[in-house]
What we know:
This protein is an alpha/beta fold. The protein folds into 2 domains: 8-25 and 136-249, no CATH class; 38-134, no CATH class. 49% of the residues lie in helices and 14% in strands. The strands form 2 sheets. A 5-stranded mixed β-sheet has the order 2-5-6-7-8, with helices on both faces. The chain has a 3-stranded mixed β-sheet with strand order 1-4-3. A hairpin with a 4-residue loop joins strand 7 (204-209) and strand 8. Helix 5 runs antiparallel to helix 7. The longest helix is centred in the first third of the chain and has 22 residues, at 66-87.
Amino acid sequence: xxxxxxxxxxxxxxxxxxxxxxxxxxxxxxxxxxxxxxxxxxxxxxxxxxxxxxxxxxxxxxxxxxxxxxxxxxxxxxxxxxxxxxxxxxxxxxxxxxxxxxxxxxxxxxxxxxxxxxxxxxxxxxxxxxxxxxxxxxxxxxxxxxxxxxxxxxxxxxxxxxxxxxxxxxxxxxxxxxxxxxxxxxxxxxxxxxxxxxxxxxxxxxxxxxxxxxxxxxxxxxxxxxxxxxxxxxxxxxxxxxxxxxxxxxxxxxxxxxxxxxxxxxxxxxxx
Length: 272
């Protein structure tokens, strides 16, 4: 059955906001800015994402030793520092003094660990499989499904073991094993969208924890698909106007919307 045309359109970014806090969906859907400015932490993540897009080319062309990889990654990071202001001119026009230097220094400090983990991954999985999992056949492909009432853009599509699968770039922390629960939902939602477009099952996806040079394969389970569908329905209700009940989280004091977020309990909000 196609999605009800009266339902608000939702995106995968809405699902990820819901996982962090359902009320963030409410505020963003009503025009509040999620990231009002670029700080050093956000800039670090932006730089690491750009850096990771160079992994396939660097791994393919250079001799696989720590010194060579380190030099190539440092050169790619320097280029990213020059390119980002051109890619996001409006946001960089408002950047505070010293933020670029601090953000780039933080990203540069991650390079030794990235190098060590890339070399470890190449040793464990082999160069060709690693390159297949890292190399995009398409980047930032727009995917949408009327039936799911969902849209999203994977960081890239890679061809691995003869099938196209989504890969997402995550510049934050990574778990010791596997992937974070939110990243599993992210991967599953992209798999559902890619299946809707291709008509073929997508049994797995990749998550790149680029701050560490780690690549993790995620098997898409039926329980992951069920959770995506459940969150989609809840997000539709929020975007239609239902305010979820306020919850106290450890990051509430740093939340962009904290001054607007007041207690508002209702019987319906108990479902969130």
